[in-house]
């Protein structure tokens, strides 16, 4: 019996050009998600929240706001790519290639395209990944390159932050 560490994410040394990470969590987008995100970001284009405007569009229904799709793709990739990162450096070559609607489920995957040691931060490296998201039909809905700083495994800034319990678990607590 003992404490088992959960997934701690990748460090700079773990990234190899050509590796592909299929991020484990799919996400179905709801009308509520789309409306809340549209309101939160103050997007006033009615194509995202007005059913009548959506019905009159070439799509016949409201579109999910593209910045929500981008945010979900980045969020899905964190566990595999930037769990130990401390700064995004760039988002490039963003392409929105297929419309997304409420009810669509998105999955994302990322491929490592470049790595290099940081010249100014010896405790870190710089990684670039190409991320793409697929809907439930396998259509690619977006892709982009993202570059970020990520800690090296021995970085003093990458220590775990989980607090020590004042009272540890004991075997007597199990049924």
From TrEMBL:
<dbReference type="InterPro" id="IPR048274">
    <property type="entry name" value="MC_hydratase"/>
</dbReference>
<dbReference type="InterPro" id="IPR052342">
    <property type="entry name" value="MCH/BMMD"/>
</dbReference>
<protein>
    <submittedName>
        <fullName>Monoamine oxidase</fullName>
    </submittedName>
</protein>
<dbReference type="Pfam" id="PF19315">
    <property type="entry name" value="MC_hydratase"/>
</dbReference>
<dbReference type="GO" id="GO:0016829">
    <property type="term" value="F:lyase activity"/>
</dbReference>
<dbReference type="InterPro" id="IPR029069">
    <property type="entry name" value="HotDog_dom_sf"/>
</dbReference>
């Amino acid at each position: 019996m003992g404490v088992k560490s959960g997934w701690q994410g990748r460090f700079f040394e773990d990234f190899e050009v050509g590796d592909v990470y299929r991020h484990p969590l799919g996400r179905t987008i709801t009308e509520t998600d789309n409306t809340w995100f549209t309101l939160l970001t103050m997007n006033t284009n009615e194509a995202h929240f007005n059913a009548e405007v959506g019905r009159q569009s070439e799509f016949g229904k409201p579109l999910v706001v593209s910045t929500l799709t981008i945010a979900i793709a980045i969020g899905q990739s964190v566990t595999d790519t930037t769990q130990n990162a401390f700064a995004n450096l760039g988002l490039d070559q963003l392409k929105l290639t297929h419309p997304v609607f409420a009810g669509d489920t998105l999955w994302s995957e990322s491929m490592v395209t470049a790595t290099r040691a940081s010249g100014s931060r010896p405790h870190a490296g710089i990684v670039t990944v190409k991320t793409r998201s697929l809907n439930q039909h396998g259509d690619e809905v977006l892709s982009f390159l993202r570059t970020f700083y990520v800690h090296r495994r021995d970085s003093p800034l990458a220590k775990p932050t989980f607090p020590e319990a004042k009272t540890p678990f004991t075997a007597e607590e199990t049924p």
